[in-house]
Design brief:
The protein is built from eight helices and twelve strands. By secondary structure, it is of the alpha/beta class. The strands form three sheets. A five-stranded parallel β-sheet has the order 3-2-6-1-7, sandwiched between helices. The longest helix has 15 residues. The radius of gyration is 20 Å and the shape is elongated.
Length: about 250
């Protein structure tokens, strides 16, 4: 029987297995091979066929278990030899998920591809916390920025974003929280609200709210770690628990 190679990039969403799309589930059910990331909930693999090959190619705390070049090669090799390969990625494949790089590599081999969008943590986790990314009269736009470039340096876009009134969501940036806070403090935004969301949408979720002046102490006290997103802007004050933060600050 001749194998027909086909690769589908599927966004698994921010962590809660119920936040994947129905189309994403159907792709998993049809897959002959699944290459999945660290932030993908293992429960989603239960939808796969009994004979489906499942390969972990994850990334945690900025440490790659499998290089991107190797992942690219695996996608093509498995598609040519087994048929339908699903690349299962946390969040959305095209929001800092390197989906574009994978599509470009696969295209060199003439293999047909499809993409199933996922809920990015930038939008999904803020929504679950009832933090609106935009709000009339407060924020007219939002930025989603990587906290660290490929060379390990802070994204220069953070300096530009800090000049605006936009809501800023930083992905993969918790390790540079002190630097990010420093940018805003230097611009005088000491009271600007900020939120940290670790393991968002999952049972072990942690949320820390504060301002630029106290968030470093709050994150240490609450023992926040990776994976976590950073949300910056006046809209964070819309979180139902932020009033307590304000009252605590006034009492000092």
């Amino acid at each position: 029987m001749q194998v027909k190679p086909f690769i589908t990039l599927v966004g698994a969403g921010p962590g809660d297995p119920e936040l994947i799309s129905l189309k994403g589930i159907k792709a998993i059910q049809k897959a002959d091979v699944i290459l999945y990331d660290a932030l993908v909930n293992d429960e989603l693999l239960d939808y796969a066929k009994a004979d489906c090959i499942k390969i972990y190619v994850g990334k945690r705390a900025e440490q790659l278990s499998t290089s991107q070049d190797e992942i690219n090669r695996l996608l093509v090799d498995y598609a040519l030899n087994y048929g339908h390969v699903v690349r299962l990625k946390g969040g959305d494949p095209f929001v800092f998920g390197r989906g574009g790089e994978e599509i470009d590599y696969i295209a060199q081999y003439g293999i047909e591809t499809a993409v199933v969008p996922g809920i990015s943590s930038a939008i999904g986790l803020t929504g679950l916390q009832q933090i609106p990314l935009t709000y009339r009269g407060i924020s007219e736009s939002f930025w989603v920025i990587t906290g660290s470039k490929s060379d390990g340096s802070l994204s220069s876009d953070l300096y530009l974003a800090a000049e605006s009134n936009a809501t800023v969501v930083v992905l993969m940036g918790y390790g540079k929280l002190a630097e990010i806070v420093g940018i805003y403090r230097e611009k005088g935004f000491h009271d600007l609200p900020i939120a940290l969301i670790q393991n968002g949408s999952q049972p072990n979720e942690k949320v820390v709210l504060g301002t630029m002046d106290n968030i470093l102490d709050e994150s240490t006290e609450k023992r926040i770690g990776v994976p976590a997103i950073i949300v910056i802007g006046e809209v964070v004050a819309k979180h139902k628990a932020f009033q307590q933060i304000k009252e605590k600050a006034l009492a000092l």
